[in-house]
Amino acid sequence: MSRDPRFDRFLCQESVWTSVELLSRGRALPAPLTVEWHLTSACNQRCPRCVSRDLLNGPSFSRERARALAREMSDLGVRAVVLSGGGEPLCHSGVAEVAAHLARNDVLLGVVTNGLLLGRHEAVLAESCRFVRLSIDAATGVISGTIVKDASQGGPESDGVYQVTVTALDRPAEPVDTVMLS
After folding, report:
1. Crossing angle, helix 118-128 and helix 95-104, to 10 degrees?
2. Could you tell me the pTM of the whole model?
3. H-helix segments, the chain
4. CA-to-CA distance for 51 and 54, rounded, in angstroms?
5. How confident is the model at residue 55 (pLDDT cuts 50, 70, 90)?
6. Cβ atoms of residues 89 and 96 within 8 Å
7. Are 109 and 83 in contact, with CB atoms under 8 Å apart?
8. Containing H/E element for 18?
9. d(CA 56, CA 48)
10. How far apart are CA 39 and CA 162, in angstroms?
11. What distance in Å separates the CA atoms of residue 78 and residue 81, rounded to the nearest whole number?
């Protein structure tokens, strides 16, 4: 299969192109290119429109199993991992070890977070992540926070989940901008 210049630059990366060629010949890949990993169902928020609400604070990977899975993914040649969904990935007790292992083994890492624990994990995220994406459920707290009065840690009179997330970004002691740059 010859390389078509109309493909975007991502597809023309050697590792991706090799995978495309294997798939076009009906052969299986040795590992997924990217894994979206729901590391935990634990969450430190109660967002009123959370799609995972019924699953929150249920089973999660143990710290040992999370480390083992990170090793398996890097050993198999997974190119990228996104820690997201199902709960707040930064609530998992092994997230720093997982992130450090993946980064040491050249696995690109991204994290989708509500932002409340960025300060606690700032160093490892800045060193390990290609991106940190903040999940904000609405443009204003009025849309998100008034649906359920006690939706945020701020209580019934607060501006809701959005306000809590914005507060996490505004703390001068936690320079989130350095985490978000790739």
Report:
1. 10
2. 0.69
3. 14-24, 63-76, 95-104, 118-128, 141-145, 160-170, 176-180
4. 8
5. confident
6. no
7. yes
8. helix 14-24
9. 13
10. 23
11. 8
